[in-house]
Design brief:
311 residues; alpha+beta; three-stranded antiparallel beta sheet; 8% strand; globular
Length: 311
């Protein structure tokens, strides 16, 4: 239920604050500061999957440019309920304020999805290299200075747990970025439910909680959550990923203009490139990273990249 989602987002905020990985504008929020942070986040990591919630909060939008205009004109006093909630001056706040906080923190998975178990304590911990849009000067992320072997994957098993108290859970645990696919994994058995209409690209839509998807080589296909695929992860349906998320099977088509517009991960000793961000579709504990100029020059433009193998 939404209360579990709210507790997870707030606990993640407190963990980041305790670990000093929050930007100053979020660590000590003010109405003007939150608006400034919203502008920076929108500039740095706008994603269409956030459009609905952003439009609900800022009351206008449509694309990145439209949202930036809406945020810059937004009445800063409307941030006060969220500030009061974070400071403890109020015990509750509107759901849309929680969604805005999740967006500012880049909490995953968002927005709220009733099929995820937000009470699950197996959450990823904040790492220094995941700060992304946290500095007030809007500084860019550092470019890789070594090969992919020198960039450890962000995996649950490699993260150090630290204890802290929060109201819902009795045990101490660290709340951090949640691998969307990890918590979305569901194993089902039984017959296939009849689909109801197509998504873009001709993918079938299954009704309500029966809507799931699975990775089919280089893209996601839809499937009923009741159908079992041996050895294959069946995860909660994300229509945006079904329609647009792809593995780039021809890395030689990636150019210098693709810097930070495509994403990559090292998987099974190969560098794999994708059209969107998130987590690796086969290894959901492995987070995709935006491809920098260094990575594209080394693995796509070197001429040696008919193979993306890493040795």
């Amino acid at each position: 239920m939404f209360r579990d989602y709210e507790n997870a987002v707030v606990a993640y905020y407190k963990a980041r604050k305790a670990n000093q990985t929050l930007p100053r504008l979020l660590s000590k929020p003010t109405p003007a500061g939150l608006r400034k942070q919203c502008i920076m986040v929108c500039q740095e990591r706008y994603n269409k999957t956030d459009d609905l919630r952003l439009r609900e909060f800022f009351e206008h939008g449509g694309d990145k440019s439209a949202f930036l205009q809406a945020i810059s004109r937004y009445d800063i006093d409307k941030f006060r309920p969220l500030i009061n909630f974070l400071s403890g001056r109020s015990g509750t706040t509107a759901e849309i304020n929680i969604e805005l906080l999740a967006w500012l923190l880049d909490f995953q998975p968002r927005p709220y999805n009733e099929h995820y178990d937000y009470v699950d304590p197996e959450m990823l911990e904040v790492k220094e290299d995941e700060k992304m849009v946290v500095e007030d000067d809007g500084g860019e992320m550092e470019e890789e200075s070594s090969s992919v072997e020198d960039e450890p994957a962000v995996r649950v098993a490699e993260l150090t747990k630290r204890g802290f108290n929060f109201s819902l859970w009795k045990s101490a645990a660290v709340i951090t970025l949640l691998a969307a696919a990890t918590l979305g994994i569901r194993y089902y058995s039984g017959r296939v439910t009849k689909p109801q209409g197509p998504l873009s690209g001709g993918h079938q839509v299954y009704p309500g909680p029966e809507a799931c998807m699975f990775w089919n080589g280089d893209h996601y296909d839809t499937i009923s959550c009741k159908q079992k695929l041996e050895g294959t992860l069946v995860v909660a349906l994300d229509p945006e990923k079904v329609s647009h998320f792809r593995m780039i099977t021809r890395p030689d088509t990636i150019t210098e203009q693709s810097v930070r517009k495509v994403w990559y991960a090292k998987h099974n000793r190969k560098v794999e490139f994708f059209t969107g961000d998130g987590f690796h579709p086969v290894d959901p504990q492995l987070r995709l990273k935006p491809a920098t100029d260094y990575m594209i020059r080394k693995y796509c433009l070197s001429g040696a990249l008919s193979s993306t193998s890493v040795y």
